[in-house]
Amino acid sequence: GAAGTVGSRVAASADPDGYTLLLNQAGSLTIAPSLYKLDYDPLKAFAPIGVVAQSPEILTVNPSSVPVSSLAEFVAYAKNHPGKLNFGTPGTGTLPQLLGAQLQLAANIKLTDVPYRGAAPAVVDLLAGRMQMMIDSTSVLLPHIETGKLRAIAVTSARRIAQLPDVPTFGEASYPQLTASLWTGLLAPAGTPVPIIQKLSGALSETLKTRDLLTAYKKLDIETENLTPAEFNAFLVAETRRWAQVIARAGIKAQ
Predict the structure, then answer these.
(1) How far apart are CA 133 and CA 126, in angstroms?
(2) Which end of the chain is more exposed for a tag (fewer CB within 10 A), N or C?
(3) What is the mean pLDDT of the chain?
């Protein structure tokens, strides 16, 4: 609940014995600190273990509402229709919302942000034409892209994804600052002994190499990145700083 902060709070206060772990995503760990008054600091309350999965986000439009086929065309269309494109998001403080805010800042365009309680109702309105665009994960949008009901414009991954080989990355379309992923990380309460963290990190590393997991991940274009605990910590610090700047520049407030 509460964008993952309820579970995070429980994990933060658990005994640091290696038997209580937190599996959570970008929102509650690197975005929430800039939006909400948390009674814990994610950068201090947890001992990072590693990244479990990374999923690209896709900028999509309803082709019957927005007659564009590229990011350049989309930006031009948005500039000619300021505030007229409704941008559905899974809610305030989610990665899709912040990516939309960063796109507006980078491209100097104005979209109308419409936060929903989750991705499902936003997709329903996007398909019906009440929303004109949306950014979300492959698992949410890919089925509708494959049927032609939605059109993919760009992906946030560093390289093109296998299931949409003709769709460029934001970096290829001159917006490298939109490179991002919906990542899931594994952490333990701060104070967990280093040998335990190292053991858990090693177990996670081996798990990420298993054939069954890699096969399941490939179907959804989910990637793995075998970060050490120190590398994951540095990543969390950088991501927290990144989204704090976007939230401040875009004037996003908690709802």
Answers:
(1) 7
(2) N
(3) 93
